[in-house]
Amino acid sequence: MVRRTYWVFRRDFIAYFLSPAAYVTMVGFLFLNGMVLNFEIGPGRAGGDVDIALRLLFGNFFFWILVLAVPPLVTMRLLAEERRSGTADLLMTAPVRTSEVVLGKYAAGFLFTALVWSLLVIDLAFLAARLPAGAEMDWGKVAAIYAGILGLGAFFTAVGLWASAFSRNQVVAAVMALSVNMVIFLVGTYHQLFSDEPYEQLLYSFVSVISHFVRDFAVGVVDLRYMALYALGTAIALGMTVWTFEARKWR
Fold it and tell me: What range defines the domain where residue 23 resides?
């Protein structure tokens, strides 16, 4: 099983670097974060405070756009392109299980998503170099934030792969995954807008990804309950992907 899963993973991960879309995604990622650094943090809004600088970089509008949009862009072709080109028929008649195909493609998508986010180290190094004398980058908080990004990214990557199993069209798959991610993102804000009940606020606060970052990851705390929540969501989404691809692979 491991060998067949690795074969699928290796095939799809290498394929990313043979497509211009991968490089467009990485360049766009660096551009948006660079723009935030220059226009949001550069003029001195952080006032030399590292905590404020990190909150501005990891809590702005563009940050959440990237969190929601990068996984759908990375995963949109993984299964949709197989069905569109007809290679899904060949793949599924090979001595490989559907679960192995899904896990291999998921591993490729998640690793590439992590690679894209690793580019942010360039911006962080640039930010650290611009801090005033006596101020130091809190790399512990950065590591906690990265843990949150990777945990949530693992979940959104699984959602993106599930959406890719639905359609032969990559754009449709990306839009569907982004829409689901948006619903997941917004459901946690319900308690702030419509609910005054304490138990409901506690529940929605627990599933709110904004709360996860604002209250914990951004201050250097990695709450394992949230990581477990992301892992559970990932497992459910991958299970749904296997079922969906099995049901639709010949359509």
Answer: 2-248
* pTM reported for the whole predicted model: 0.86
How many domains in the chain?
A: 1
Q: CA-CA distance, 37 to 244, in Å (whole number)?
A: 41
Helix (H, G, I), strand (E, B) or coil at 46: coil
CB 89 within 8 A of CB 244: no
On whether the CB atoms of residues 84 and 58 are closer than 8 A, the answer is: no
What are the tens digits of pLDDT across the range 84-126?
766 665 666 666 788 888 999 999 999 999 999 998 888 778 7
pLDDT at 83 over 80: no
> Based on the number of CB atoms within 10 Å of its own CB, is 194 exposed (0-12), middle (13-18) or buried (19 or more)?
exposed
47, 135 Cβ separation under 8 angstroms: no
Q: What is the pLDDT of residue 38?
A: 67
